[in-house]
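Our preliminary data section would be incomplete without showing what the modeling component actually yields. Below, a chain of 103 amino acids is followed by its predicted structure, encoded as C-alpha cells that our downstream tools consume directly.
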Amino acid sequence: MTKPMTIAIPHQLGLAEAKRRVDVGREQARAQLARVANEIDDRWEGDRLSFRIVALGQTITGRLDVAEQQVLVEVDLPWMLSMLANKLAPKIRQQGTLLLEKK
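Predicted structure:
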C-alpha cells in the first residue's frame, strides 16, 4: 500500500520554460539516483512527467504536472518509506523552488 505525498511548487516561468527546467532537473535526479536505484523509468505525456524508481527493494512512482504557474509533484511512497515523507517533502520543495526560480 502506498502513501501519496503532494507538493505544489509555484513559479512565474510559463509552461514551456517550466517544462524545460523540469527536464534539466530530471537529468540531474537520474544522475544522483543512479548510485542507489536498480531501475529508473520516466516519460513525458503531454505536460506530465511520470516516473518509477526501484531502489532498495522498494518501488516509488509519481508524477509532475507542469502548469503555467505551478508544478504539482505527486509521489506514491510505499509503506516502508512513508515515514520519510516529512523529511522528503521539504527537500523536494526546496530543490523544486531553486530549479524553477526566475533568473
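Residues 15-33 form the longest helix (19 residues). The helical segments are 15-33, 79-82, 85-100. Preliminary results of this kind motivate Aim 1 of the renewal.
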